[in-house]
Amino acid sequence: MAHQHVQHLDPYSPQSGTMIPGGFVKFMRTCVIWQIIRFLVINLRMTKLILKSHH
Predict the structure, then answer these.
(1) How many CB atoms lie within 10 A of CB 28?
(2) What is the pTM of this model?
(3) Rounded to whole angstroms, how far apart are CA atoms 21 and 36?
(4) First CA to last CA distance, the chain
(5) Do residues 45 and 53 make contact, with C-beta atoms less than 8 angstroms apart?
(6) Which of helix, strand or coil describes residue 41?
(7) What are the pLDDT digits (tens) for 1-55?
């Protein structure tokens, strides 16, 4: 049985079928201030959940 090689696709090519992130999405992914805000919000949610479970 012969081995068939997988054909590799270029990222963001029409054949890959993935969405291309827009400028705003790229900015939000790389903005340090936004990442700090999201980190704090997630930690507050986890703290609230933990405090509720200890009662």
Answers:
(1) 13
(2) 0.58
(3) 21
(4) 63
(5) no
(6) helix
(7) 566 776 776 777 777 677 788 899 999 999 999 999 999 999 999 999 999 998 7
